[in-house]
Amino acid sequence: MGVQVELLVNPFCMADRDSGTIGDVCREFGVSCRVLNIWDIDDDMAGLPGHLASLIREYRSGLRPGNLYSNVFVNGQRVLLDRWPVHLDEVRRLIQSMLEAEGE
User: Fold this and answer.
1) Which of 15, 63, 94, 101 has the CB geometry, 3.0–4.6 Å to 58, for a possible disulfide?
2) How confident is the model at residue 49 (pLDDT cuts 50, 70, 90)?
């Protein structure tokens, strides 16, 4: 299956920085990154994995109030990108551990 990285960005909150830095981490490990803009996604969320669709519904409904930072998912496991630059190390660890598990 491979390691899947999905980056859900808010274009009004550090999206360029997050796209660049998460992209760099993915290139380090040779994995691809799918970038999604939260405001470009239709309300029916057709074709989106459940973990992305449910988070978007929470944001849009107000169930998850506050600032909308970018979120990255590594094989469905969420990392909120709100602790610069510590969150990059967390993403690296997740990708590396999943790649190692894949090789077992």
Assistant:
1) 63
2) very high
What is the rounded CA–CA span in Å between residue 12 and residue 59?
14
Alpha-carbon separation of residue 60 from 14, 18, 41, 68 (angstroms): 19, 21, 11, 10
Burial 52-74 (b: 16+ CB within 10 A, else e): beebbeebeeeeeeeeebbbbbb
The pTM of this model reads 0.88
Tokens of 12: 């009004």
Q: How does pLDDT run across 18-46, given as a tens digit for each residue?
A: 899 999 999 999 999 999 998 899 888 88
The 33-37 sheet, strands edge to edge: 33-37, 5-9, 71-74, 77-80
Residue 47 C-alpha from the chain's centroid:
16
